[in-house]
Design goal:
about 290 residues; alpha/beta; 7-stranded parallel sheet; two-stranded parallel ribbon; 12 helices; binds NADP nicotinamide-adenine-dinucleotide phosphate
Length: about 290
């Protein structure tokens, strides 16, 4: 059985490859990358590095040759959902043409009810995979914990305040590493054909709790103030995000306030049996 992972030089893909190597021999793992120069450390692990660009269908067919299970990691080209859809469709068609048996796709949790901007792209991709009639598994990820906390940490330790528009909303985020372990688990087990998993944490947290943990770790009082969309966006810009990313993040905060990122599922626990606590993730992000 050969398992291929796209986006293998990315943060999630890299973790998936490393977890796969704990479960199956390296000669059964294919890392599909668009820049082979970035894959030197992956190559040193013994995995088969193959060039595959979502914009180049022929390269994908070649990269997927002899692969039985494919993990299609969603494209990162934010703000252009049509382009991302084309990229995903290229990968799905290439998988079909290369006789891949089973596609796994990283979507977004509870996509049908989500107002999160990329949710429709993820649903459209899932339907395109179903239309291919290949076996599928939808690995619907929640927000990455590192992604949602990182712009706030250093800034808030400096200023003593975190400003969001999340209210008391809870966040069911998960680290990339835990999600990657769930993906590698599913990829190396039988019995996940045509299943959908919502990979969220049942230990959701609030920004008040984040501020408490930061106060504890930094020995400095840090408070969470919940304000307007504009106040949160401007804070994120001061923390270093571009205006469009800061607006995108403040939109996610609105969804948090509305309870959209507080939904629960036992899928992640069932697959990996544990979760990295928020405090541990903060320490890792801050290198403490
Ligand atoms: P990442 O670190 O940006 O990795 C993205 C990967 O996609 C990289 O390996 C990149 O290659 C590759 N890629 C980009 N364009 C490509 C193309 N045209 N053809 C082939 N490969 C291409 O992202 P991540 O953190 O691992 O996250 C994985 C995905 O999750 C993202 O792509 C995005 O769809 C989604 N996402 C989820 C969240 C969340 O909170 N759940 C947040 C952000 C994004 P290079 O290394 O050559 O750039």
């Amino acid at each position: 059985m050969t398992i291929a992972v796209t986006g293998a030089t990315g943060q999630l893909g890299n973790f998936v490859v490393k977890h796969l190597l704990e479960k199956i021999p390296a000669n059964q793992v294919v890392a599909v990358v668009r820049n082979t120069e970035k894959a030197v450390s992956l190559a040193s692990l013994g995995v088969d590095i193959r060039y595959g660009n979502y914009m180049d269908p022929a390269s994908l067919v070649k990269a997927f040759n002899g692969v039985s299970k494919l993990l299609l990691i969603s494209s990162p080209d934010a703000f252009d959902e049509t382009l991302r859809m084309v990229q995903h469709a290229n990968a799905i068609r290439a998988a079909k043409n290369a006789n891949v048996e089973h596609i796994h796709y990283t979507g977004t949790a509870f996509a049908e009810d989500a107002t999160f901007d990329p949710a429709l792209l993820h649903l459209a991709t899932e339907y395109a995979i179903r239309a291919s009639r290949l076996a599928y598994t939808f690995l619907r990820n929640t927000l990455y914990t590192e992604g949602i906390i990182s712009p706030n940490l250093v800034k808030s330790i400096d200023s003593g305040v975190i400003i969001t528009n999340t209210g008391n909303g809870k966040i069911n985020s998960v680290t990339r590493n835990d999600l990657a372990l769930a993906h590698a688990t599913v990829l190396t087990q039988a019995g996940h054909e045509n299943k959908t998993y919502n990979l969220v944490s049942n230990q959701s947290w609030t920004f008040d709790e984040l501020a408490e943990i930061l106060s504890d770790l930094s020995n400095k009082k840090i408070v969470h103030n919940t304000g307007s969309f504009e106040e949160a966006r401007d804070y994120l810009i001061r923390a270093g995000l571009t205006e469009s990313r800061a607006s995108g993040r403040a939109s996610v905060y609105n969804q948090v306030a509305a309870g959209e990122w507080a939904k629960k599922s036992d899928d992640l626990r069932m697959l990996i049996g544990k979760e990295t606590p928020l405090k541990e993730t903060i320490k890792q992000v801050l290198n403490m």
